[in-house]
Model the fold of this input.
Amino acid sequence: MRQDAFTLDVRDEASVEVLGLFGPSGSGKTSLLEAIAGIRTPDRGEIRIGERTLFSSAHRINLPARERRIGYVPQDALLFPHLSARGNIEYGARGGDCGSVANILHLDGLLDRRVTTLSGGEKQRVAIARALMTQPSMLLLDEPLAGVDRDRRDVILPYILRIRRELQVPLIYVTHDRLELASIADRTLVLSDGKIVASEPAASAAALD
Amino acid sequence: MSAETWAIARFTVLMATLATLLVLPPAIAVGWVLARKAFPGKALFETLVSLPLVLPPVASGLLLLWLFGRRSPVGQALDAAGIEIIFTWKAVVIAMMVISFPLVARSVRAGIEQVDRRYEQIAATLGAGPFRILRTVTLPLAARGIAAGGVLGFSRALGEFGATIMIAGAIPGQTRTLAVGIYTLVEVGREDDAWVLLAISALLAFGAIYLSNRLLDRRGAL
Done:
């Protein structure tokens, strides 16, 4: 998998950044997130977040996923089917109970349910909560609204905005939907065929063809 | 059913249960390695693990007889420690373990292979180390396959004959299992009693296979 280097700048605390990753299916968005999370190893290149080098083919650095402190929410949530919602959320928790995170995402009533009984949107929120409980330095969201019914999407988006506002975690948000992009991203990288072809403020990215 | 046949049945079930419990940990370890790991010589390792499955059980029995007998280092060490294996109930358990091991390991392997690796990957991003992932994600999700493997191994152990008669003999009241019992009773002309043992064996085997299939069936619905 070819990777061109790109730099993610986290601006000062006052304005936590949401980086949009935009591109059609097959353009390599998921692969890029997997590489950042440490699930997939690129052939060559570098992945750095600020001062930390997570991967460098040149310097033979490859930090294992469990040490990267990056929250990853895959497209299909991938909740552990044998655990309840609470069991999932608390799986990687670093101290503290899931109360505040569950509160922000309105999961209080769902906590003891088996995840197989949850709707698409509920699963997505549980997956986000699960990732947040590890107190990640960054959160990767892979098409979080893809598995959600159209009419429910407007309900989920505010939750994501709340996370950004109340928990101050930088987000990388993958989508092929321009409207989502416009609502949420501060800056956008446009992907095509595994390569980054543009880096835009969100407003002009939405106008791209 | 006479006291004797009842004792044989109880003894066999007890030994098979013990053998299955003892064989599960190594079979799970080997099954996991085969399912998840790649290494040089893996094909050779797989073949060795499957050997008791394809060798005639008496041949496996002969190998075990050598291993635990006075002519091998293992046998001599046991002898020095005052531990008797050959022609005791311990030999029955060992024979059952060796013969059922490949079946259990293969079932474990299949059970683990059907666990989506992405669950393990997500667990890693959540900060879990390899052993924690195995314990909290992989094995629970493979539990049905592992249980089915255990039941399969148990039913194979129940019917084990060739290796058993080689290293444990057919001592009445001490090492006579259901299968060995059927053979020896026919040999001495007590065929009616042999038929009773056959009926018990068939009942146990039927129950075990039925349970194993039920466990595997519901796995599809997960």
The helical segments of chain A are 29-37, 85-89, 99-104, 120-132, 153-167, 178-184, 202-205. The longest helix of chain A spans residues 153-167. The domain at 18-205 of chain A is CATH 3.40.50.300 (Rossmann fold). Residues 7-14, 203-209 of chain A have pLDDT under 50 and may be disordered.
